[in-house]
Amino acid sequence: MAEAHTPALLLQGAVYLGAAVLAVPLSKRLGLGSVLGYLIAGILIGPWGLGLIAETETVLHFSEFGVVMMLFLIGLEIELDKLLELRMPIFGMGGLQVLLTIGLVVALGLFLHLDWRLALVAGMGVAMSSTAIAMQVLAEQGVLAQPSGRSAFAVLLFQDLAVIPLMILLLVIAPGTETASGFHMDWFAITKAIALVVVLIVGGKYLLRPILRYIANTGLREIFIAFALFLIIGVSILMTSVGLSMGLGAFIAGVLLADSEYRQELELDIEPFKGLLLGLFFIAVGMSVNLPLIMQQPWLVLGLGLGFVMLKLVLLFGLARAFGHKSQDALLFALTLSQVGEFAFVIFNAAADARIFTDNTASLLNSVVAISMLTTPLFMLAHGVYLRKRLNRKSSSHDAFEEQRAVIVAGFGRVGQVVTRLLSSVGQPPTVIDFDPNQIDLMRQFGHKAYYGDITRPDVLRAAGIAKAKLLILAIDNAEDALETARYVRKHYPQVTILARARNRSYAFEYMDLEVDFVRETFAGALQLGEKVLTELGYSRFHAYRTAWRFRQHDEKLMWASHPIRNDMQQVVVNSLRMRNDLTRILTEEQQGDDKRERINQGWEQVGRTEADRS
Amino acid sequence: MAQRVLILFSHPYAEASRVNRALLNAVLDLPDVTVHDLYQHYPEQMIDVEHEQALVAEHDVLVFQHPLFWYSCPALMKSWLDTVLTFGWAYGDDGDALRGKPWVHAITSGGAANVYQRMAYNQFSIAELLRPFEQTATLCGMPYLQPFLTQDVNQLDEIALQKRAAQYAAWVQALVDGDLPPVVHTAHAPQVDFLEGA
Question: Is the ipTM of this complex over 0.90?
Answer without folding.
Answer: no
